[in-house]
Amino acid sequence: MDRALPMAIPDAPLGASNVGSEESLALAEHLARGSSDPEPMREAARIFALEGRRGRAIDVLRQGILTHPRHADMLASLADLLSRAGTFEEADLYFQKALESDPTNVEAWYLRALHHGRQGKAALAQASYEEAVRLKPGHVKAWVNLGLTRADSGDRDGAVSALRRAVAADPACAEAHSNLGALFAEEGLREEALEEFRRAVELDPDCPESHFNLGWALLAEDELGQAEVTLLESVRLDPGNVDALYALALLHQRTGAYARAVAELKQAIGQKPDDARLHYYLGVAYNSQEAVDQAILALETAARLMPDDARIHRLLGVAFDKKELPARAREAYRRAAALSG
User: Fold this and answer.
1) Using one digit for the tens of pLDDT, what is the confidence trace for 32-82?
2) Residue 196: inside a domain, yes or no?
3) How many other C-beta atoms lie within 10 A of the C-beta of residue 168?
4) In a domain, 115, yes or no
5) Residue where one domain finishes, among candidates 103, 135, 169
6) 105: pLDDT strictly greater than 80
7) CATH for 49
8) DSSP assignment string, 197-246
9) Number of domains in the chain
10) Does position 14 have pLDDT exceeding 60, yes or no?
């Protein structure tokens, strides 16, 4: 992780129930059985899905569609639930039916874009987001996700334009500001990036990714005190935030707080044990402490996970030299030189 984290607007939320689970389910059953009108049936399906009864939600929508076969909202809701369940081919059919019934249904286009995104079909997702914002120019979530899709395809100018449209539609959209910051950071516009990251944190102070992005940018500027405070807040909000733990470890390695770097890297490895980068920097931190045996173990793990990284073998050579193991040091240096070309 050597860049800011992009922040998509997540899958459309199913909503929130304001009553207890049993009461919610009873209400959903009442709605499902008490009326054949589309809206009560959609609400019943929403509650069932929220309460973890996705299968029942799908059944309710199928039942409703028998009575209202061209109801675009109901067709799109069923398609969305099928997509979330991984039943992509059937979801495709229902999205097609929804849009044949109402080609101007903005939410159907937006949900279809999310559906394509789940499958990694970036071009189709982009086309659906573009149709959603054409039909509804103030659709903030679609503009944000369109910006990310364009950025992933290499269209940086188009991405910035989409994210600026999101901000124009909703100046309080933290995801739009954070993603603009990430794009500015990649383009070397450091002051602009920091401004956007700070705005994102102001708008959503409980978002660990926003704090990470700001902390990472501050670390790149050598503003270590502010970076540490911000990254610690990211970890407080999400103790399993591997990227923030990694950034904190780099910061503490830089300031000579090697024991803290070791602790943070070990915590991160507990979350992501196959990340060679984490094992490498754990080896760096142990080597800085002159804990050579632990450094060798960490670096050998890194080399197993990423055998073609010259840096790992070079540092292994240093560690083997410290242990007075000249043959193993020579082999590590030879391997590093071969990989360096």
Assistant:
1) 887 778 898 899 999 999 999 999 999 999 999 999 999 999 999 999 999
2) no
3) 14
4) no
5) 103
6) yes
7) 1.25.40.10
8) HHHHHHH-TT-HHHHHHHHHHHHHTT-HHHHHHHHHHHHHH-TT-HHHHH
9) 2
10) no
